[in-house]
Amino acid sequence: VAQDEAFAFAYPHLLDDWRAGGAQIETFSPLNNEPVPPCDLVFLPGGYPEIHAARLAGSSTFIESLRSASQSSDIYGECGGYMMLGETLTDADGVTHEMAGLLELQTSFARRQLHLGYRNLSAQIMPFKGAFKGHEFHYATTIKAEGAPLFDATDAEGMHLPPMGLRHGRVCGSFAHIIDRLDSAPIWD
User: Fold this and answer.
1) Smallest Cα–Cα separation from 105: which of 135, 128, 136, 78?
2) What was the pLDDT predicted at 180?
3) Residues with pLDDT less than 50, the chain
4) What is the pLDDT of residue 188?
5) C-alpha to C-alpha distances, 107 to 3, 63, 82, 123, 132, nearest whole angstrom
6) Secondary element (H or E) of residue 15
7) Is residue 78 a contact partner of residue 86, using CB atoms and an 8 Å limit?
């Protein structure tokens, strides 16, 4: 689990559920250019990569280890983590920074737009097979998002939304923060 000022928003109950299910969680800091530890799952939670985009773009040890991990580990990024998995992130000053390039995604804060609301998410692919409750809260604008979607989505009132997120190989992510499953199965199989 990435954990530092750029990736600071992970629901504690989600991590507690993983621990209760037998997961051993190790944290690392992309901002400190720490490599991804050997693992089955890499989780890049939400946070503020846009504030630290230049430093993250220069974290070559982290980025190369993330790319390498994508060959043997599942990788999931939500919100800020999702942007990190993309090709580029443009900061509020209009400067574009190279990100990990694991998803065909380009995001920007040069023109901010609020995206806010609870989401009902469903997927028929592993590792997110099932239905989930989530929330979306970000100001990023999507410039490019190409590839297979991760989730079908509705808003809290059941109105259909465009598919959310992207997946490619073992890498997936979306702007939605998963809150919980809508059934009793574990969040991550």
Assistant:
1) 78
2) 86
3) none
4) 56
5) 21, 18, 10, 23, 24
6) helix 12-20
7) no
Quote the CA–CA distance of 94 and 151 in Å, as a whole number.
30
Work out the burial of residue 166: count CB atoms within 10 Å of its CB; fewer than 13 is exposed, 13-18 middle, 19 or more buried. buried
The verdict on whether 79 is a catalytic residue reads: yes
Q: What per-residue confidence (pLDDT) applies to 184?
A: 63
What does the alpha-carbon distance between residue 140 and residue 143 come to, in Å, rounded to a whole number? 9
pLDDT value at residue 111: 85
Q: Which of 10, 63, 79, 100 is catalytic?
A: 79
Residue 126, Cβ neighbours under 10 Å: how many?
12
Look up tokens 């890049």; give the residue.
Answer: 44
Are 130 and 122 in contact, with CB atoms under 8 Å apart? yes
pLDDT at 126: 64
Tell me what pLDDT residue 101 has.
98
For residues 13 and 21, what is the distance between their CA atoms, to the nearest angstrom?
A: 12
CA separation for the pair 102, 117 (Å, rounded): 27
Which token pair is 56? 């993250």
